[in-house]
Amino acid sequence: MEKILRECSLNELYKKEERMKREIQELDSNMQYLVYENHSKFIKASETIREMKDDFQRLEDDMTHLGSRMEDITTASGSINRALADRKREIVKLCGVHHLLKKLQFLFELPSRLNKCMEMGFYAQAVKTYVKASRVLAQYQHMPSFSGIQSDCQSIVARLKSDLKNRLDDPNSTTSMTAETVDLLLALNEPPSQLCHQFLDNSQRQLEKDLAVIAAESEKEGERGAMDIVEYVNVVCSGFLANLSLVIQSCYDMFVKRHLMSTEKEELKRSEVAQQTLCEFIHSLMAQCLANVRRKLEKESVHLDSGQLVKAVDKLSGKLQAMNRLLPAAGLEHKSKQLTQQIAESHTSCHAQRLRQSFSDTLTSVRQALVTARRPSSQQDDSLNGHCTALYASIKSGLESSLGQLKAFIEPTVSFSDKRQFRETFCLCLVREGIVISFINHVLDTCHRFTETGDDQSPSYPPSLVLILSRLVHDMDRSTICYLVSYGDERFPPREQGPIVATPTTQLLRRAGDVAQELLDHYVKVQGQVISQMIRKSVETRDWLHTLEPRSVRSGMKRVVEEVTLLDKQVATLYEDGAKKEQGSEGGSRHTYSYTQGGKGYPYSSSAMDSSLLSNIQKLFYERIEVFATVEFFKLSIVTGIIKIVLKALLECVRLRTFGKFGLQQMQVDSHYLQLYLWRYVSDEQ
Is pTM beyond 0.70 here? Predict the structure, then answer.
């Protein structure tokens, strides 16, 4: 208020007063509204409070009455205890006598009880009854009455042991019945070592029946009624492995754990011997079981159904891990890892084989399609790009499909995939090196084999196939290899460990570049040899000394130009044109020079130097042409390489022949024809 009075003007004070009045009126109206709305609730609440007060008053009266009654009961109980104190001692004494008489009655009835249990086959009840009374009988055996009872019981127990041993040897006894029988014999103080061997021998007979079922199913493949791999593993886990687990648990509890709880050296030694015997027993049976399971799983690997295979291996691995926890000394965890690794190796090997076979089949179909149209044609040229695309698709889609299938091995839901050693080995060795890198190398090796034809041998495949493969490998060098390797590394991150080192991508790229270059050079060489053969026949089969005066170009030269034209179209479907070399003022195929002695094209006269010197000077300034030089990945360079081989062959054939006047003129006509039509197909007109 002091601040308002000090800082505000009179008008502001009036306005603030008016605002406060309005707020007070609003609050009053709101309060009236709330009271009106909740009037009935206030009335009901008041009535409820009044009723509660009445109820609490009655409750206090009842509690007071109850307290007085409890005091009366306490007084009466005290008077009763005082009255019966003397008799209580007598009652306790009589109860002790009664309990003793019941024990004596139990001992006197023990032989009949044992016989009755024997007759009804309740061996466990008979053993429990005898063990319960044996200590008392041994303590009072010097008394004649107890001595007779003990003698009768021992004869009955001898028969009981005999029956139990017979049941132990019964081939129809289940594993659980055998374990129960051994437990009863141990309770009757039979030698543990003998029982251990007998227990394992009888258990082995039962387990061998399960092994026979597993072996029979593992031999079935594609037969009617044969189980799939998941059903087969379920049979193994619920049958043989479940029964073996029961044997391990029972044997460990009866012969190993019981002695481990003792502090005596002799008992501990017995425990070690029993454990060693049990481990040998497990190793013998597991070797047979895993051999059958491995055979079945490897057969399933061929079907390339990674999901089903991983599901089966995961279930089997989980069961072996659980069994390993029962007896770690048996080393079942190591066997589980070893089996998983072997199945993974077998399955990835099948995928790698499938990829190689798929590429081989595609390559064979392309080869057959090209063979059916051996002579180059426009229709065939249009299909070259399609064949190259089909080969590329078989590589890319096949590898992506296989990696997608194998992804099931490292899914988070798979129990064995979280093992670091398995994951690293699987991703780096089996997938990256065993499938991706191996398949790329296989493609490069397959393509490289098409360049290994000897010089004196004609290829058994169409040269256009080499051209397709050169383009395929060239694309792999430029992009495909990097894509495939990175695709695999993203889905199966490799981690280098120890001596295992990942193959660098640069090594593959360098090799792909070399193979692509060799394929392209080989294609140029083969096509050049094919056309050169035509030229050789056309030159060698003609009598150049006695030929007629030339009227036109020979058909052989026309055929050469036609072949080069078809090859140019063929190469154009796979490679870009490229750029021609720019010609200087003194270069060019259409420039002619007269280098004859004394000719106008040469600045020196005959008096300056002789013809031999002139020839040598010409050779000094002559630009040498590399006939078999490496070609580039462009159409002009490829066709130029072929034409250089063709012209070199023509030059060599002419050099070995002797020409008459008309023969020389015919060759001049042919050469001029080639000059007119071939210059457009070369990168360098020189």
Answer: no
